[in-house]
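pls design
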């Protein structure tokens, strides 16, 4: 396991919220522990590694995100979210010179294409599973998206 893989593992542990990961192979053992100190509102990361040769591991301290405004969350709760069904790159239109499939204020029905997600050089049209009106586009055009990431806020009424 090289330094890059260890750093990626540390980042994964920090993002996932797990408290401890331990990997043991023939020639090394690595334990990554994450402790959440509520009083400090920050996370600390403890990394222990035993290997035949000493390995320098740079410290990675994840930064806690600022809490979202409760009023905005309450307002968004009345809307339905269209989620990404896959990991890929989000596109609002079929091409750079084409109009977006949907924009804020547009109404659509079940089966209408709302965006495209490119995954492994395949362009997948994402169809609406509900009928409604676009309230907010949550992702910028041509940006990467994760599985289950909210793409649009929809007023289903």
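designed seq:
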């Amino acid at each position: 396991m090289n330094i890059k893989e260890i750093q990626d593992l540390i980042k994964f542990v920090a993002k996932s919220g797990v408290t401890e990961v331990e990997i043991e192979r023939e020639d090394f053992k690595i334990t990554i522990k994450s402790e959440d100190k509520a009083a400090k509102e920050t996370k600390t990361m403890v990394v222990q590694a035993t290997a035949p040769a000493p390995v320098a591991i740079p410290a990675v301290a994840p930064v806690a995100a600022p809490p979202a405004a409760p009023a905005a969350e309450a307002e968004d709760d009345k809307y339905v979210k269209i989620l990404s069904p896959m990991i890929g790159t989000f596109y609002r239109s079929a091409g750079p010179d084409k109009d977006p499939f949907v924009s804020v204020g547009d109404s659509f029905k079940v089966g209408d294409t709302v965006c495209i997600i490119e995954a492994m050089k395949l362009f997948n049209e994402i169809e609406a599973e509900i009928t409604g009106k676009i309230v907010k586009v949550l992702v910028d055009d041509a940006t990467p998206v994760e599985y289950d990431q909210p793409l649009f806020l929809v007023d289903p009424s």
